[in-house]
């Protein structure tokens, strides 16, 4: 029930964020043409891309609430990983657009209406920053939520840069300040996006998630009563939030009771954040060797 309540809570957060950010996107693009501001226009275009990213992340988050099907025994959890990759690529592509616009602005300086830029950008800071707070808690444990959080924080930083640039232009008259700040902000966005892209690609390739202590898990399984060997150990992400583990335990002289399985599952969940555990117990008889003991 806890997971269901979390998904419903984030569904509400996505709905509010999409609505507000779509509104600020329309406002930014309209007033960018009014103020003759390429920086405000690039901010609006970036916001438009982020609205699409939020819609993708929202759909993936909703899919997590669907039960497993006969053919899809794990449900649709992996789609959250695809959405995280899409969000990261979207951040990169919109950042490239901002770089292009900033360089173009630097080479073709034009006067702008700084008052309109400041007012609209301040509104963007409030909306982007406020909606980002809706995802702050979930950003630590779910790449999909983290993607949405990074999108909104990135937009808030861009709007801050636009405000600072407009103020400096207003008081100094130096038009090159705006595109230079744009390039600095894009560098910050790309630095933050790299971690999201790296983690999401690793998950789609079934790599062990970066936050999982593989050596700690292996040591824990080796220390279980009666265990002589551990092989065919696999740890991978079922989704951006749920981790699975399978392993073969060689226990020649005893079996594992249901109560012990429950304790093992609890430790793996509480200490290592692994949700789905499947353990195969073998006696290790030389006449019946496990075919997976050598390759894994």
Question: How would you characterize the overall build of this protein?
Answer:
This protein is mainly α. The chain has two domains: 2-204, Alpha-lytic protease prodomain-like (Up-down Bundle); 214-282, Alpha-Beta Plaits, CATH 3.30.70. Helix content is 65%, strand content 8%. The protein has eight helices and three strands. It has helices spanning 2-35, 38-63, 79-107, 114-133, 143-172, 177-204, 214-222, 258-272; strands at residues 229-237, 243-250, 276-282. The chain has a three-stranded mixed β-sheet with strand order 1-2-3, covered by helices on one side. A hairpin with a 5-residue loop joins strand 1 and strand 2 (243-250). Helix 1 packs antiparallel against helix 4 (114-133), helix 2 (38-63) packs antiparallel against helix 5 and helix 4 runs antiparallel to helix 5. The longest helix has 34 residues, at 2-35. It is elongated, with a radius of gyration of 25 Å. Mean pLDDT is 83; it is low at 1-5.
Number of domains: 2
CATH architecture of the largest domain: Up-down Bundle
Give the number of DSSP strands.
Answer: 3
Distance between the termini: 36 Å
Helix content: 55-70%
Mean pLDDT: 83
**CATH class category of the largest domain:** Mainly Alpha
One letter per element, helices H and strands E, the order comes to HHHHHHHEEHE
